[in-house]
């Protein structure tokens, strides 16, 4: 039985808490949150106790922590958990600052604890099946990756101001997908060019951010990746990629709430995609936390390590710089 | 808190037991099975007790029972549960004999308990969305229903011999879908013609059954329904229907494990459907047991009553008779 | 160079005339029509001459005739063309009366001319590709065929009154598809049950016809076929079939004017099917008339003979009888 | 009646010649080709005469010429036809050299003849329908365009050496689509970044070319366009684009030879796209030449002028430069 503490009882904390509470062999022991009532409500619902952070770190019975608190707290909590000898699951990103993220990665390595970063797309059944077929050689050698990633609408301006910008906040996932899919054999980015615009709402520009981006990456082996993103798709949450290989292409489509087609005078209408990430990645969230505990149990390495978190952050920094300067970045 | 006993710890019993155990406000108290070790294993896994039937019926703390035992036990267990004042969830069918099913329906009515029959397709998100749009008038008045229902492969001959035949065992679901979709406004079957063949395996004929059927039903209002079934689809479990209305058509497709398309020299390949009912109807099983307890709580009527079970059984009998005689049946 | 006369300068006559006029090695010599101005217009447009029927039959330079005049004239014109030693392409049906159709088939056989009936669906690229894969064994042995055939709207009541009824006028095509696809190896219908309703417009009933039908056919080998038709689909002309075989299924979908998908707040919308037969079967009409002349040239048998026309007519008669009596028909 | 001469009796010349010969009001008078037997064969097949270029330019009865000869001859033939007062249809590109293309555009303007460049994609029914809906406001303001353009296989190295490189030879079409779709309101490219690789065959590198490219363009209004291309798609000719707008997305898919879906143990397989441009753009070629003569008749402007040809060439030059230098280009 693994005893676990969850830090953060907000939207994503509640998802991870209830998913892990349902796993055999895992016990949700503590819930911590800066807002006591939020912690209390979640703890009560899942049969856990409310605790302070110090109490968690001091309790030798706690095996692992799940960090679901705001981004600004991640690196500090990882470092403290590592120092306390707890295994760590941390929501992306490691930290908005690459140097701090790198420092944390070193701290984790020194402490010898296991640390997994929550890039949940690697656990999405569709994306995962594409990776499986790539590994099985079904489309030969990978050559070009096109990622389309669009939110249903921009978050509030206050959120944007603290987000680190669209590349660090939103594309961090796509940049991780790039590495996971196009660099599965150890290849890495060699050249990156990004450009960006504000097309949906002038308030985004006033917050110093962009809402629409176009990124191109060339790898050391000459493979090409294009990422296009927008903060607003009128038809919902759009999460697709396609990978051209020497023998074919894998194309990952969206999930829909139902498989109903409506044929009428206007045409043949299918559902639009699931509305947002909580619905689209519901299975992925379940599978990633299961993976975390499976690996703790078996000693197998995680699919997404703290090093992956650091590398995605480096790419996000490079993309930000490129979009600001209008010039490509070499690695 | 509702206390529940599950009868039957086989494949379907385990599904219902773990789904209901996860519901807030519901407690799985007892598990009963003719095989003590099966009962014990399920009870232990879900924190329940093993019990004999008599003990369950005698315990005034038990609010409801979920009957997931073999078909031949259904009517007797419904009658006993009704007599004991327990609310009842029973897997389809009520009974392979229409008179016995009718007797049980009367017993339930007299006892004043609630009894829901597990026609899970009514809870499938895709089928349910089609019904919702029909009710919302999106395709006008319903006119023609075409149901395609194919298993991935025939069950063992021993199963077939005790099954009541393909119409009672397999088409019972499709006949219920016919009533649920094409007779949503109270219309009913007026004329039915069925024919059947053995096309997949001569052993099916030796068991006195068929593996391929074609049923046509005309309703009192002149609406038309065609059902085609096979025990074997080489591509998996095929569960679709389409409803033509005066203003359009609703077409319900299969679910797939992933949304990957593979483009290669052979064409563009999508996943085949989910392999069988446990996967295809996983969400439906979860939603139907939730519906059962929601209705117990709210006092709302069930979507599928014991009367629905009786009526589907009558249609299955008529189809069997029609296929045997080569003549249509009038209602 | 084959010299050809076209009888009938209406909608279908114009299509066949311009298709054959564009074929290398074929010369459209004459156009005949009861309405002189219609004949003149078509003849002028395609560089042909207007002629009377007698003139065509008497001209030894005429190799073949294409009969595109009203249904009531078909059998007489086939007989006269056969007597004159002309090869014959005739639009479906041979004749609304089976005995007359049979007599005509005998006359053709005795005259030793070639006679092809215009079941254009056998030349539709999609349907044809399905038949090719069936022949290639890609889905194993055929077992069940489901045909969906829906017009965009009912024709005028005057048309209906002279049409011979929906089975002879509309389902004749579907009954031919049944024989072409499910009986490709020489199997034939053994049992047929049909039922029908008036659901779209009471005027159809007043004309003594139906607008919605459901037909089931069992073959000598026990294969099953279901046909569903309606005179009205709000979404256009719906022409599909699917064939279940022992190793898989072939599913033939509709064609659309474009491959545009529109994603918006309402969903993901594809085009509805082509509006009616002239658009849907444009390629089929071109390919069938090319096939006619190819066979004349090569001496190969036609894909659709006058015997096929007679057999489809027999099935249409049986379906009409079954729908009227409520009883199945045995062959 | 318009009299026309076709220059070039190769693959594309034969297509345009037979399409224009079938148009009412158009007469194919002359065919010219450096290979006399090629000219003779095409002329005979379509009832035209073989001629020398000088004879065509000197014949006052010739209204228009269709230039389908090798790329290296285009600018010279346009200039000579303009000087002779003939209207001009010319296959893309105007010239591989931008200055020469610009000079030709000036010559055309001075001569006052009409000159259309054969960017056939603007006439593809699917692409055209997307543009129509964009113009109709169905997806609001355009924001991002993603173009996928892949050939089924690289041409011979000798072809590549004379092609001007992948950007001028292959992407010229995609760059025109960019202007046609994303700049429909007069917007133009402001910034372009391109990168490219050799991933399919080292012989391409030896020919001094690339086979895989990734281009990003930002317009003056901040709209974003990404183009990904490859000389080799194992699944055939892949020609798609998708346009995100403020109210939705238009997605243009490939055409397929048939609408057959094959369901079997491997999955559900649709046809791969049409094999190459002759099949995919068959309708577009027909419609573009019809447009040419319609405009000559009506005096309406062409959809694709010589200025469009020059501007696409400028973008192709910029992309080549960017891919060579690794730096973006500003306009």
From TrEMBL, chains A, B, C, D:
Q: Which SUPFAM superfamilies match?
A: Glyceraldehyde-3-phosphate dehydrogenase-like, C-terminal domain (SSF55347), NAD(P)-binding Rossmann-fold domains (SSF51735)
Entries under NCBIfam families matching the protein: myo_inos_iolG (TIGR04380)
**One of this protein's Pfam families, by short name?**
GFO_IDH_MocA
A GO biological process held by the record: NADPH regeneration
Q: Look up keyword Oxidoreductase and say if it applies.
A: yes
Location of the Gfo/Idh/MocA-like oxidoreductase N-terminal domain: 3-119
InterPro entries tied to this protein: Gfo/Idh/MocA-like_OxRdtase_C, Gfo/Idh/MocA-like_OxRdtase_N, Myo_inos_IolG, NAD(P)-bd_dom_sf
What do the Gene Ontology cellular component annotations say? cytoplasm
* Single GO term (MF): nucleotide binding
> Which organism does this record belong to?
Malikia spinosa
Which superkingdom heads the taxonomic lineage of this protein's source? Answer: Bacteria
What family does this chain come from, according to its entry? Belongs to the Gfo/Idh/MocA family.
Gene3D superfamilies (UniProt xref): Dihydrodipicolinate Reductase, domain 2 (3.30.360.10), NAD(P)-binding Rossmann-like Domain (3.40.50.720)
Which PANTHER family does the UniProt record give? BINDING ROSSMANN FOLD OXIDOREDUCTASE, PUTATIVE (AFU_ORTHOLOGUE AFUA_2G10240)-RELATED, NAD(P)-BINDING ROSSMANN-FOLD SUPERFAMILY PROTEIN-RELATED
The record places domain Gfo/Idh/MocA-like oxidoreductase C-terminal at: 132-330
* Name of the molecule in the record: Inositol 2-dehydrogenase
